[in-house]
Task: inverse folding
């Protein structure tokens, strides 16, 4: 036999968990202790236990004997289990293996499991009907069960009608039947007591009563004073003073048992019925006492559960308050952190805005510089445009002159050809070559004029919008400036126009390169013709140099104005930005303050509402528990401390009075019927005497004999006159006819044969014993008394 002994704290924890398993929470101390043991038993990264961890946990809980069953029940086919599933399954399975009130395992279940293992049944195997019988035959507590009992238990346990049950189901049905049989046996026990029959006269339960009170009590019950005195004399008790109630009760019980053994069946039935009634009343009293004790225990358990619930309620209240305080602290910390974050964000935004302002200022300065450079470029372009226009005009005039010269040369050529067509062929070829050169140059000039006109149009359009030079790259701009400087330094010549790369404003085309001598001749011709143009250009450059001083002063003045304007714009932007930042900071501070006040009010409101709802629920629960406790206490008090004038006592008294009146009525009826039978006997005897008319001496002898027996004193059994009268009346009622016939035959024989007086005397004694209440007629019926007794029993029940 294996016993599992738990520690006091663990046993109290298991008792608390199984008694109030519906209100278990994570804040419960016993649940936290169980969780601590659970987490210390080799849990994995997901806070779960496998079979090895559950075996280790069972060793810590001192449940190693049930480790296999607990593991199978808790895992339910899985590999691991978390704490919440383990708690629910473990608490539901714990009452099947452990008596949590004492902390010990069920010895019958342990022996049954060991026996099942020895018979070859596996742990947790469901048993058939035959296996259950075989298991009961090998267990000492279950050997006395018959096959019918085992089948009945198996049928009640097999709820699913699968033909197999578990060992725990069978033992649960066995305990249920055993408890019911014990209750039935308790109810059917007899509580016949022979201690004190006069408890009504002995309220102090001292065992002594007053003789006068006893005689008065008997007189009220229907016993005469002289008969009571006779009983006291026979029992040896004094007539005056105190009496020994226990001794007198024993004497009366002995006399009653002696009279019962000699009394007829009807009297025996009456006495047995009274005993049964008294036993039933005592059984009811004993059952009421046991129920009162049970209710008292339940009341104690209720008080304990009430204390536990109050403690649990207080713990829950404390945990809820702590939780709300923690949540309030977390909220404050969170909002404080949020405020710090918002302040950091505002500072960061401020720095970013300042950085953007600096970037804008730099961009503004850069734009001012680009504007200045653009204006300078515009001025240069205007100058270049004017120069190009002037060149265009000059080139047009030169073209007109060359055309006029061409016309003159043509006329001269025609005249010369007419005069000397053959002599001057060589000179004609030279003129043709010059003409071709001039035509080609004229063509290039026309194209250049068209390009200049198109570029001027583009330049007029670009001056209205963004300048074209903004889209140039640095390398391209430097190359253009280099070409421009070189052109300004050297001046335009025919060789450079023919040999150097094309301008950026002229589209690229393939040209026929000239030889060095031809370029030299071409340069000389063009230089001689454009000498005047060069002199004019030098004069215009001098004029530009003279005017550059005034333009520089104007540019310096414009730069100073732009600087002052930039400083004013910067100061205005800084002031506006500071004011905007200050306003934004004030608005955000006010908004933050409003939100903080709103959240504070909301938190206080929610806290008050939760506290109010919790207090209301607490008061409702306490009021309900108090009402249930008061009702149960009142009911138990009414059962335990029931007054004598209560309804039940009145009911019992009424039943006793009804029984007494019924017995008195039956007694009077039996006495009346007995008197009628005596009258009938006398009349019958007188009629027989008149019919047969015997001799005088025989009649005298017979009459004297009858008078002798008629005047005979009562027997010792006359002390039981009520029972004797009832019994004699019942007996004579059914045998009156038989007795009269036998008496008739006796009188005939007495008249015929006087020598049989002894036999007649014997028969008369027998008749007298029958009338007085002897046991000769033992087969007499008690239909009337049994029916009335049955009605009385029905009333009692």
Result:
């Amino acid at each position: 036999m294996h016993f599992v002994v738990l520690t006091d704290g663990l046993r109290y924890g298991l008792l608390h968990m199984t008694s109030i398993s519906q209100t278990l929470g994570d804040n419960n101390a016993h649940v936290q202790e169980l969780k601590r043991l659970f987490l210390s038993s080799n849990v994995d990264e997901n806070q779960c236990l496998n079979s090895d961890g559950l075996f280790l946990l069972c060793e810590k809980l001192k449940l190693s004997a049930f480790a296999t069953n607990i593991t199978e029940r808790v895992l339910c086919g899985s590999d691991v289990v978390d704490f919440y599933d383990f708690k629910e399954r473990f608490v539901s399975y714990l009452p099947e293996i452990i008596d949590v009130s004492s902390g010990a395992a069920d010895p019958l279940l342990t022996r049954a499991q060991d026996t099942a293992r020895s018979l070859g049944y596996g742990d947790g195997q469901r048993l058939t009907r035959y296996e259950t019988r075989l298991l009961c035959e090998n267990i000492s507590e279950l050997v006395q069960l018959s096959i019918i009992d085992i089948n009945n238990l198996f049928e009640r346990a097999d709820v699913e009608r699968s033909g197999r049950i578990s060992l725990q189901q069978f033992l649960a049905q066995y305990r249920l039947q055993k408890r019911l049989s014990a209750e039935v046996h308790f109810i059917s026990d007899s509580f016949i007591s022979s201690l004190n029959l006069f408890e009504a006269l002995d309220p102090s339960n001292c065992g002594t009563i007053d003789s006068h009170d006893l005689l008065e009590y008997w007189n009220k019950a229907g016993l005469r004073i002289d008969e009571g005195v006779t009983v006291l004399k026979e029992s040896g008790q004094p007539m005056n003073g105190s009496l020994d109630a226990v001794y007198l009760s024993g004497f009366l019980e002995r006399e009653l048992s002696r009279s019962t053994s000699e009394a007829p069946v009807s009297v025996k039935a009456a006495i047995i019925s009274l005993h049964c009634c008294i036993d039933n009343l005592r059984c009811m009293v004993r059952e009421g006492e046991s129920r009162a004790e049970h209710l008292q225990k339940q009341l104690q358990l209720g008080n304990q559960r009430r204390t536990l619930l109050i403690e649990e309620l207080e713990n829950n209240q404390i945990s809820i308050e702590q939780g709300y305080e923690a949540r309030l602290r977390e909220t404050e910390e969170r909002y404080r952190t949020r405020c710090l974050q918002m302040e950091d964000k505002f500072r960061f935004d401020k720095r970013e805005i300042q950085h953007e302002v600096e970037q804008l200022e730099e961009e503004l300065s850069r734009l001012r510089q680009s504007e200045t450079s653009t204006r300078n470029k515009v001025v240069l372009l205007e100058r270049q445009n004017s120069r190009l226009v002037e060149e265009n005009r000059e080139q047009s005039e030169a073209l007109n002159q060359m055309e006029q010269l061409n016309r003159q040369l043509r006329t001269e050529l025609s005249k010369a050809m007419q005069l000397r067509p053959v002599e001057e062929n060589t000179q004609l070829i030279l003129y043709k070559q010059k003409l071709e050169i001039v035509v080609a140059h004229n063509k290039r000039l026309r194209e250049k004029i068209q390009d200049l006109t198109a570029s001027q149009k583009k330049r007029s359009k670009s001056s209205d919008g963004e300048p074209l030079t903004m889209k140039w790259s640095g390398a391209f701009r430097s190359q253009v400036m280099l070409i421009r400087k070189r052109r300004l330094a050297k001046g335009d010549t025919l060789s450079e126009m023919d040999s150097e790369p094309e301008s950026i404003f002229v589209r690229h085309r393939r040209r026929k390169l000239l030889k060095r001598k031809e370029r030299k001749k071409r340069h000389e011709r063009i230089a001689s013709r454009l000498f005047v143009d060069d002199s004019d250009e030098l004069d215009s450059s001098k004029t530009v140099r003279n005017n550059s001083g005034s333009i520089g002063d104007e540019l310096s003045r414009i730069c100073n104005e732009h600087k002052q304007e930039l400083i004013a714009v910067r100061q205005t932007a800084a002031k506006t930005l500071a004011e905007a930042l200050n306003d934004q900071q004030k608005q955000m501070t006010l908004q933050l303050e409003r939100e903080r006040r709103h959240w504070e009010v909301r938190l206080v409101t929610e806290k008050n509402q939760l506290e109010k709802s919790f207090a209301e629920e607490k008061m409702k629960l306490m009021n309900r528990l108090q009402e249930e406790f008061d009702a149960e206490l009142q009911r138990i008090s009414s059962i335990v401390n029931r007054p004598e004038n209560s309804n039940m006592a009145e009911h019992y008294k009424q039943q006793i009075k009804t029984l007494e009146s019924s017995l008195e009525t039956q007694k009077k009826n039996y006495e009346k019927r007995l008197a009628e039978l005596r009258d009938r006997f006398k009349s019958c005897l007188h009629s027989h005497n008149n019919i047969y008319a015997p001799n005088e001496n025989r009649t005298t002898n017979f009459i004297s004999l009858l008078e002798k027996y008629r005047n005979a004193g009562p027997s010792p059994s006359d002390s039981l006159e009520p029972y004797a009268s009832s019994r004699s009346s019942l007996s004579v009622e059914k045998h009156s006819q038989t007795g009269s016939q036998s008496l008739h035959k006796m009188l005939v024989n007495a008249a015929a044969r006087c020598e049989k007086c002894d036999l007649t005397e014997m028969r008369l004694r027998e008749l007298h014993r029958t009338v007085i209440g002897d046991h000769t007629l033992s087969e007499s019926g008690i239909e009337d008394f049994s029916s009335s007794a049955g009605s009385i029993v029905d009333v009692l029940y």
Notes: The beta strands are 48-49, 81-82, 98-99, 104-105, 208-210, 242-244. The radius of gyration is 71 Å. The mean pLDDT is 71.
